[in-house]
Amino acid sequence: GIYPTTSHQDYTCVTNGNRETNPNMSNAALIVAAGRGTRAGGEVPKQWRKIAGQPVIAHTLQAFTAHPAISSVILVLHPDDLHLAPDINGLTVTTGGAERSDSVKLGLQAIPSGTKNILIHDVARPCVTDQTITNIIVALETADGAAPALPVTDALWTGEGGMVTGTQDRNKLF
């Protein structure tokens, strides 16, 4: 496999090690990684492809496990990928469902009780920054929900009949 593996009797929900947490922090990261990446094509799902010498999943998990305000990280994997689960202290691994929404629901069941905020993140977004994670947590202090958004910078073309007909205003697009 890509990571060292450990043998577990029950993969429905596996916790590798005990994460020391600050009792005042109750932010969990739910990383959804059960997809097969069919739209992206290729023989290997996106989360297992390498960027800068490491699988995409490694970059994503690093961002959340290293963040000081994240007290627990739950990784939702496809049942066929459980043997690839990384052995990271404090990481909880659970299986996903047929659709992304099913995987999120199953992941939510593995969230520790008493968790105040849950950050749901797609594993195929490995470039999430420490500051973005912090900004979301801060936003959740005064809002019921929050999502990061970046302004669209690419040119957006409109077309008809295979011909470019103009551009789309990006001022209100994120």
Report on this model:
The chain is α/β, with parallel strands linked by helices. The protein is built from 3 helices and 9 strands, in the order E-E-E-E-H-E-E-H-E-H-E-E. It has a 5-stranded mixed sheet, sandwiched between helices. A two-stranded antiparallel sheet has the order 3-4. A two-stranded antiparallel sheet has the order 8-9. Strand 8 and strand 9 form a beta hairpin. The protein is globular.
Q: Quick recap of the structure?
A:
Helix content is 17%, strand content 24%.
Outline the secondary-structure elements.
Blueprint: E1 13-16, E2 27-33, E3 50-51, E4 54-55, H1 56-65, E5 72-77, E6 91-95, H2 100-108, E7 117-122, H3 130-139, E8 157-160, E9 163-167
Parallel strand pairs: 2-5, 2-7, 5-6
Antiparallel strand pairs: 1-6, 3-4, 8-9
> Widest sheet: strand order?
1-6-5-2-7
Helix proportion: 10-25%
* Count of DSSP H/I helices: 3
Class computed from helices, strands and strand pairing: alpha/beta
For the record, give the distance between the C-alpha atoms at the N and C termini, rounded to a whole number: 37 Å
Strand content: 15-25%
Shape: globular
Mean pLDDT: 84
Parts with pLDDT < 50 across at least 5 consecutive residues: 1-24
The main pleated sheet reads as: 5 strands, mixed
Number of strands: 9
* H and E order: EEEEHEEHEHEE
Radius of gyration, taken over Cα atoms and rounded to an integer in Å: 18 Å
